[in-house]
Amino acid sequence: MGLAIAFIFCIILGRLFYVQVVWGKELTQKATDQWNREIPVIASRGVISDRNGEILAGNKTSYSVFLRPNAVENAEYTATILSGLFELDPQVVLEKIKSGKVSEITLARQVSKESVEKLVPYDLPGVYYSRDNTRQYTYNEALCQVLGFTANDGTGLSGVEKYYNEILSGTNGEIMYSTDIVGIETEKSVVIYSEAKDGDELRLTIDIDIQLAVEEALKRAYVSSNAKAASCVVLNPQNFEILAMANFPSYDLNNVPRDDKDTLNAQSRNSVVCDIYEPGSTFKVVTAAANIEEYLRGNKKAFSNSYIFNSSRTRTVDGTKIKCWSDHSNGKHSNQTLAEALNNSCNPCFTDMALSLGTETFYNYLTSFGFGNVTGLDFNGEALGMLVPQLLVRDCDLARIGFGQTVAVTGIQLACAVAASVNGGYYYLPRLLKSVVTSDGKVESNKPVVLNRPISSEASSILAAMLEGVVSEGSGSKAYIEGYKVGGKTGTAQKYEDGHVAVGKYVSSFCGFFPADNPQYLALIIVDEPEGVYYGSTVAAPVAKEIFSDIIGIKNIQPYA
Length: 561
What we know:
Blueprint: H1 2-22, H2 24-35, E1 36-41, E2 48-49, E3 55-67, H3 75-86, H4 90-99, E4 105-111, H5 113-119, E5 127-137, H6 144-147, H7 159-163, H8 165-169, E6 173-178, E7 192-194, E8 201-204, H9 208-224, E9 229-236, E10 241-248, H10 261-267, H11 271-274, E11 276-277, H12 284-296, E12 314-317, E13 320-323, H13 338-344, H14 347-357, H15 359-368, E14 386-387, H16 395-401, E15 407-410, H17 411-422, E16 427-428, E17 433-437, E18 443-445, E19 450-452, H18 457-473, E20 487-497, E21 500-514, E22 521-528, H19 536-539, H20 541-554
Helix pairs in contact: 1-2, 3-4, 9-20, 12-14, 12-18, 13-18, 14-16
């Protein structure tokens, strides 16, 4: 009996220890929660601004209205008033009051100040309100797929709003007061105020003046060509900061089509980052870069700048005939050097380069230029692209990859690869975030990061000069601007559907940069399924000229003497 009593006593002591020490904190919180009620103080969401501090996404003050059913004195009267003020179904409000299933109900969010001012005189027991925020976008449609949008509770759902939600959100505070057991505020209630900590400001690399110019130029091309879609990215080749990024069709960030999910999903998708396409001839920049670098390294399989390529219009590889887009009848494709092959965009020449370099060497360059992997841009949903696994590559595949077929890329992948080809050979981590400005004014910079160096400065300089020739005297002539050194490459690729060529469907593109001898701006324009004339030289190159001309005006860039 003594042992039994001692055992029971130990159990009671153990239980007491568990309740007081182990479980004590949780029980204290539960007790406090039973005898106290909190009204949330919503933190102001951090603003998003461009590189110059111009606000792109800010807030306008609104309010949230809360209901505590247990504290309501006249359910029918309260339901009538609330439904009238906030355009709610009175029966639904009444059911919420009488259900008693929860201690607090969020009745309405993002309510205007005017509506709350109408609520105050009624002094309804059990009804409370607190400051909230409604996201407001300065430029409506501009940058919509990049900025993204938020849910009604302020949480980021897409774009930068989602990727950097934690930084933007801040920390909510609360107003706490004591109540009785059913949730009715006591006469001598003590109010405790806990201040909210507002979110930090995101300063993007975007230049809103360039962005607006890009949007206008791209929209005109989208409409005039009656295209299925159009997109563009402008970046600084010296550090891969994204200066502008746009896609059409688009939508108004201040009027998000939340009730039409199909439309919202399509128009909010950032195609430059999340969609892949077969690049066609713009990819020849990468093939040329690899060839030039290998020649400079002494690889005897690479072609010199003075080498004359076979003038035949076709090449036969693994029994597959590869043709040039031109019939070679005009004589331009005879006795071509590498520079002239770029000017004429002659497919067989780039087939020769890829095959001569071989799978292992060429794939090393593709990997160095970021293909087959994400670039690491600070944005959700970036696609990998499609690159045939090296072990499975046949010669006919390698030949086609050389001029931009049998490979699929994202717009941001190609833009970064071309930028690394002409900026001295440096491949940076692309980024949208330039800095974070904390609530106390401290600036935390997001500095450039070099990820790789695919080619040397010498190879890069040679290639940039050749690409300047493509614009001054070759297929990219419609991007030429008198007095400025513009380089670039056009691209026209057939589209495939269900494994077959889609008749009459093309992707037209142009990737250009300037000044060619020290690139500061690079733009990739992609026009999906233009009607009528579909060549990249005709559809996309003029858009680049328009964008570059606008940048020259915006930045007051003087022409060469």
